[in-house]
Design a protein that fits this description.
3-stranded parallel sheet; mainly beta; 179 residues
Length: 179
């Protein structure tokens, strides 16, 4: 707790079951690392890389993942069954991530680049994808009633067996979207 992992090079490392709380992980590199069932609580992740990491059943609570100029990278990460709550994940890069089974609450993914990611059977409430880049993203069996996609680029995305009633879809790019 309250430690600094700034600029740590932790590629291909094992942090399974770890608890990291109120710490700076800014510019740290966790590429291809395992953080299964880890708890990441109230940390900062400015410029942090989790590319290709396995983070199944991890908990992210109250994190700050960027500042609008420097972004956190989750591209190719396995985020299945994670719990993400009260996190500011605006501007993250998360191409081809698997969020299947995740529980995402009161979290901003505004301006995030989520191209090609999967959201299968995800529980979402109070999530913002405002102006997110979500080309060819796949939503399956997900309740999106309290989700805001305003201004998002959803071209080529698929929404199968999803509840979209009440979903914010103003100024959304729906070209080639399958609903």
């Amino acid at each position: 707790n309250n430690c600094s992992l700034e600029r740590a090079m932790a590629n291909e490392s094992n942090f399974d079951g770890a608890t990291i709380e109120q710490s700076s992980l800014d510019f740290a590199c966790f590429t291809e690392s395992s953080l299964v069932e880890s708890s990441l609580l109230s940390n900062t992740y400015l410029g942090t890389t989790f590319e290709g990491a396995t983070m199944t059943r991890a908990l992210f609570l109250w994190g700050a993942f960027g500042d609008g100029r420097t972004f956190c990278n989750f591209s190719g990460a396995n985020l299945m069954n994670t719990r993400i709550e009260f996190a500011d994940m605006s501007h993250i890069e998360a191409h081809f991530c698997d969020f299947s089974g995740a529980n995402i609450r009161q979290t901003s993914l505004a301006h995030a680049d989520l191209q090609g990611s999967k959201f299968h059977s995800v529980s979402m409430a109070g999530v913002s994808f405002q102006e997110a880049h979500m080309w060819k993203t796949h939503f399956f069996s997900t309740n999106l009633c309290t989700v805001d996609f305003s201004g998002a680029a959803l071209a080529g995305s698929r929404f199968e067996f999803c509840d979209l009633q009440g979903t914010g879809l103003s100024q959304v790019d729906l070209k080639d979207v399958i609903i």
